[in-house]
Amino acid sequence: MSTMRGSSLAYLIRRLAMFALTIWLGLTLMFLIPRMAPGDPIAAMVARISSQAGRVENSEQMIQAWRTRFGLDAPLYQQYGRYLWNSLHFDLGYSMAYFPMKVEDLVRAGMPWTLALLSIATVLSFLVGSTLGALMGWPASPRALRLVLPAALCFTSIPPFMLGILLIYVFAFGLRWFPFAGAYAHEFPPGRNLDFVFSAVHHGILPATAIVVTTMGFWALGMRAMMVTTSGEDYMILAQAKGLRPRRLFWMYGVRNAILPQVTSLALSIGGIAGGSVLVEYIFTYPGMGYLLYQGIVNNDYALIQGMTSILIIGVATAVLIVDLAYPLLDPRIRRGDL
Amino acid sequence: MNTPLDNPVLRVEDLEVRYGNLAVPAVNRVNFEVRRGEILGLVGESGCGKSTAAMSILRLLHPPGRVTHGRVLLDGIDLLAMGTREHRALCWKTISLVPQGAMNALNPVLRVENQIADAIAAHEDTRSKGPLTPRINELLALVGLPSRVRRLYPHELSGGMRQRVCIAMAVALRPPLVIADEPTSALDVVVQRVVAQSLLDIKNRLGNSMLLIGHDMGLMAQLADRVAIMYAGRLVEIAPVADVFRAPRHPYTRQLIESTPTIGQRRPLAVNEGGPPGLGTRTAGCPFAPRCPHAMPRCANEPPAMAQCGEDWQAACHWSAQP
Predict the structure, then answer these.
(1) Nearest partner of A187 among A195, A197, A178, judged by Cα
(2) Does B109 touch chain A (CB under 8 A)?
(3) What are phi and psi of B29, to 5 degrees?
(4) Alpha-carbon distances, residue A145 vs A138, A216, A226, A256 (angstroms)
C-alpha cells in the first residue's frame, strides 16, 4: 500500500490543477457573457439618475466619466487582465447599480441570509428526500409507502417559485401565519437575541419549505433507484441469509451503499448554495445572494454579476474538490494509497 | 439407536416451487435428505431448479418465486412453517450459505471483520467487539487466510480469498448444514481447487453436513459423498457418487458424466442438442424424453417416478427400470 503514496500525491496535484483550471474557465466565461449581452450599464445608471432628478446636464460627458471610472474605456484585454488580477485578490470592485457600495459589502450583507436559508433547506431536503427514497426502494417497506412516489414526482415537477407563490397566498395572505417577505422583522434588528432569531426563523420557514418540498423529490427518486439496485445485490442476499436484523440490513448494507452517488450531488448543491436561489429569494424578497444576483442582472451590473458568479464558481469548485478528496472515506474502493 | 440414515440433518419433502403463474413448477415435488456429516451434491444444468431449491431451503426465494408445497425439515423442525422473526433468529446458526464464486457477496463498504462480526452479533449477545477478534482470526486461519485479511475490504481481496472469507463466515456459528451454491464457479482452475479443498477441510474439521450445488461432475467426484441429479425441476437420480460414476442409471446422468472432458481422449459432446422444456409448457411424460437416446413410447406419456434401483440408489427412468 505504501508504494502507492506517490500516485496519490500525483493525484492530489492533478486534482488541484483541475480546480484552478475550472475556476479560470468560469471566471473567463463570466467576464465575456455579460459584455455580450445587450444594454449598457452606465447608460442605464445615468438614465436612472436622470429619471430621478428630472434632467441631467451633459449626460454624454457624464457617461464618459463613469466609463473611465469603472475602467470600461480600456481595451477588452486590459479589462480582462485587471479583472483576473482583482479576482485573485478577492477585490470585487464597486457595484454599478448600487454605487458607491462595494460588491464585497453587498455580498457580505447577503451571504449570511442565503447561507443560513439554503444550507438548512438543502440538508433538510437531502435527509428527508433520501430517507423517503430509501424506504420507497426497500422491498420490506409497507406497501402504502409506494403511494409516496407519485406525490414525490408531482412535487419535483413544480418549480420552487411557483410553490413559493402558492405558500405566500395560503399561509401569508390567507392564514396570516407567516410574513410575506424579508428575512426578519424590522423591530428586531440582527443581533444576538432570541427575538431576532425567532423572527428570522419565522421569516425563513416559507422560503425554506418551498425549496425543501420541491427539491426533496429529486433526492428521493435518486435514492430510490439506487436502493432498488442495492437490495438486489448479492451481498444483500447473503446478509439476509446471515439473519441480520432488518434495521442493520437497511442501514449498513442498503443505505450505506446506495447513498454514495447521492453524496456527489449533495456536494454540487452545497457548492451552489453560495449563488442563492434566485427565484425563491425574489418571490419572498429575501435579502440573500439570489436576490442580489437578480438585481445585478436586471441592472446589467457587470461588477456585481462577476463578483457573485466568481463566488459561485469558487464555491462549486471547492465543494467538488472536497468531495473528490473526501470520497475515499465513504467508499473504500477508491481509496488511493495512504491518502 | 440412531444411525445416520435414520436421522438426517435436513429432509426436503415434496418441495414444489413456482414462479408467478407459470404452468410448470421450477422445483417439482423434490424429495431428498442430507445426512449427518455428508456432502450431498445437487447437480444439474442451468435452470434445472437446483439453486431455486437451495434458496427455498434458506427461505431466500424472492417473488414471484414461492414455495407452493412441501416441507423443509431441519432436525425435524419445518423451516418453512416458522414465523419470519423466529426463522431469522435460527437461520445462520442452523443453515449457512456459501454463495456463488462469481457473486459480489461481500458488502463493499465494510471490512471483512465487520461482515463476519455481523453474522455473529446477529445471533449471539456480543456487547463489545474486543473478544470477537481472536475468533475471527481463528475462522480465517481455518480457511488458510492470514489474520491481516480481517482489516481489509472486499475489493482488496482476490476472488479466491473472497470466497474463502465467505466460507469462514459460513462456519462462524458452526451450523450443522452449509449450503454451497456453485462455490467455485467463475474462479480460475487453480483457485477452484483451493476453494474446494477449503470446503472439504472445513467439513472434515468441523463435521458439518454440506449441500453442494453445481453442474460440474468433476467437482462432485472430488467432494461429494452422494449426488442428486436434477432435470427440469425434478430429481432424476440420487445415489453415492462412486456408484453413479460407475454405472449411472438415468441417461441424463450418463450424459452429464460423459460431458466432463478428459485429457486422454477427445470425443464429441455426449449431450444431445436442445434444452429442457421451459416453465411455460407442460409436458405429459418424462421431461428428458425429447433429448433421451433411449426414449420409448411410454416415456412421452407417463412421467417416471423415483424408484429404488439398488441399495441407497434411486432413479426416475422407465428405460433403466426395465428388467
Answers:
(1) A195
(2) yes
(3) 45, 65
(4) 10, 16, 17, 21
The Cα A220–Cα A145 span in angstroms is: 12
Backbone CA torsion sign across A219, A222, A225, A226: negative
- Examine residue B183 and say whether the peptide bond preceding it is cis (omega within 30 degrees of 0): no
Backbone angles phi, psi at B270, to 5 degrees: -80, -20
CATH code at A103-334: 1.10.3720.10
Smallest CA–CA distance, residue A339 to chain B, in Å, is 16
Residue the block writes with cell 435527509: A127
* ipTM of model: 0.88
pLDDT of residue A6: 53
Query: Over pLDDT 70: what percentage of chain B?
Result: 93
DSSP-assigned letter for residue B124: S
Residue B13 touches chain A, beta carbons under 8 Å? no
Classify residue B262 as exposed, middle or buried by CB count within 10 Å of its CB (0-12, 13-18, 19+): exposed
Q: Which residues in chain B show pLDDT less than 50?
A: 1-4
Name beta bridge partners: B78.
B73
Give the whole-angstrom CA distance, residue A238 versus residue A244: 10
To the nearest whole Å, the CA of A28 is away from the closest chain B CA by 41
Reported for B64-68, long-range contacts at CB under 8 A and 24+ positions apart, including other chains, are: B64/B19, B64/B20, B65/B17, B65/B18, B65/B19, B65/B26, B66/B17, B66/B18, B67/B15, B67/B16, B67/B17, B68/B16, B68/B17, B68/B18, B68/B25
| A168-200 exposure pattern, b = at least 16 Cβ within 10 A, e = fewer | beebbeeeeebbeeebbeeebeeeeeeebeebb
First to last CA, chain A: 10
Q: Which has the closest alpha carbon to B116: B143, B85, B150, B164?
A: B150
- Whether the full predicted model's pTM is greater than 0.90, yes or no, is no
Domain boundaries, chain A: 103-334
- Enumerate the β-bridge partners of residue A94: A102
A251 touches chain B (CB under 8 A): no
